[in-house]
DNA sequence: TCACTTGTTGAATGATCGCTCAAGAAAGAA
DNA sequence: TTCTTTCTTGAGCGATCATTCAACAAGTGA
């Protein structure tokens, strides 16, 4: 029972505008993207942006939330969820990251990792917002690793936190290297070398 | 034969001011550090900064050059130069990075890796300046790895570029994790797991 | 002593920042 | 038609940005 909207209808596609904003933030980061950059990319004027999305910080949070639901970010969680063992999930995620982070059809690397690294004090909450997401992801990796140790997928005494940090270090490093122009074929052999150190079974 | 300086002498210690500027840029990055932030940290006024260091970009380049000569950045090259084998140099550098990047006595991570990642188009040359340094370092790693393969330190068929990317991915990932608040004891076990995959001799 | 050189001071430059507002336009409701 | 609601437009807000300038201060050289 959706009521008919009163008042003048929006003249632009909200989802398309959000996608354009996502691309800008992904490419330049939060602070380096100005409202002027956004309105130009979205094809609207400032007052329309503020009416439809709130202020810049609110828009950015909505961008991040929608980004995390896309395949460009969700591939990690899906790999860990869908594969039967931790090694398979982790290996699939890291190999996929080498491809996705360097895919030329969109900005390099991961938006959550890259978009708010150098930030003035006035935007410290945005920096913390992304950092909290990243650290929560590391904690989720550690939980998955503890489960794997319990299941006997890893040798006794293997440190689940070490596995989680290995994973986080590699993912964040891949994102950085992609931002520096590395290609998938540059990164994949490095990923394979890292996977070679895996302590347990590869099944 | 240093001539005596004519004119009014400088009222501040240029090296100390440069160190203060380094700290600011290291902590916040290039764009998020304003001239006002710098003059406050350096204890001087804008006109003195411009007289002594040129404009913001020139100051930043001098900061980066002096930073690279410090132990906080030079430890990588020294590890690779001083150790007899590539593995030893690489292992020493990565273990040291886990400690140095998280050392609470200075800002987290590496200035060259972190200080210009989200940058507006007007400062694209600064972004490129640091990226070129990083990519030149990767190329230097690859050269060192080619030499190691030639020397027989690594199994036949080992890809020197893969070794270089493994090294770069890990270093840049460590810098990122340190920026997110990870400690040395968080990161070291992850480093050890990565080193465990090394294909050749550990000597 | 006086010219010359260099550094410091405080104010001010134009540009850009995120954001807002008054006026008008386009829809449904009465 | 007229009222109400919502959106768009274009102009403009104060704040902050990097940078500069004229006036003054503190040294050296003659």
Treating each run of at least 4 consecutive H or I residues as one helix, how many helices of chain A? 10
Instruction: Bin the helical content of chain A.
Output: 55-70%
The largest contact between protein chains, plus residue counts on each side, is: A-B, 52 and 52 residues
Order of helices and strands of chain A: HHHHHHHHHH
Strand element count of chain A: 0
Q: In angstroms, what separates the terminal alpha carbons of chain A?
A: 50 Å
Computed Rg of chain A: 20 Å
Which residues of chain A sit in consecutive blocks of at least 5 with pLDDT less than 50?
Answer: none
How much strand content do the residues of chain A show? Answer: under 5%
Gross morphology of chain A is elongated
Oligomer: homodimer
Main pleated-sheet profile of chain A: none
Structure explained in plain terms:
- Two copies of one chain form a homodimer.
- The first copy, chain A, is an all-alpha fold and 203 residues long.
- Chain A has ten helices and no strands.
- The first copy, chain A, has helices at residues 14-28, 35-42, 46-53, 56-68, 71-82, 86-100, 111-114, 124-151, 160-179, 184-195.
- The longest helix of chain A is centred in the C-terminal third of the chain and has 28 residues, at 124-151.
- The first copy, chain A, is elongated, with a radius of gyration of 20 Å.
- The N and C termini of chain A lie far apart (50 Å).
- At the A-B interface, α8, α9 and α10 of A face α8, α9 and α10 of B.
- Chain A binds a DNA duplex (30 and 30 nucleotides) through α3.
């Amino acid at each position: 029972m959706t009521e008919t909207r009163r008042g003048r209808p929006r003249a632009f596609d909200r989802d398309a505008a959000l996608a354009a904003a996502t691309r800008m933030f992904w490419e330049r980061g939060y602070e380096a993207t100005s409202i002027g950059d956004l309105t130009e990319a979205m094809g609207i004027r400032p007052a329309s942006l503020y009416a439809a999305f709130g202020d810049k910080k609110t828009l950015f949070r909505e961008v991040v939330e929608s980004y995390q639901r896309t395949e460009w970010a969700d591939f990690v969680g899906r790999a860990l969820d869908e594969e039967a063992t931790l090694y398979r999930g982790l290996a699939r995620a890291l190999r996929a990251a080498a491809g996705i982070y360097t895919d030329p059809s969109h900005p390099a690397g991961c938006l959550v990792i890259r978009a708010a690294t150098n930030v003035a004090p006035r935007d410290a909450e945005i920096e913390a917002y992304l950092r909290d997401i990243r650290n929560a992801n590391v904690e989720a990796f550690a939980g998955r690793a503890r489960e794997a140790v319990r299941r006997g997928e890893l040798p006794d005494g293997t440190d689940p936190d070490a596995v989680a940090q290995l994973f986080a270090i590699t993912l964040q490093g891949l994102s950085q290297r992609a931002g520096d122009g590395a290609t998938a074929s540059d990164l994949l052999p490095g990923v394979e070398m890292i996977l070679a150190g895996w302590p347990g079974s590869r099944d």
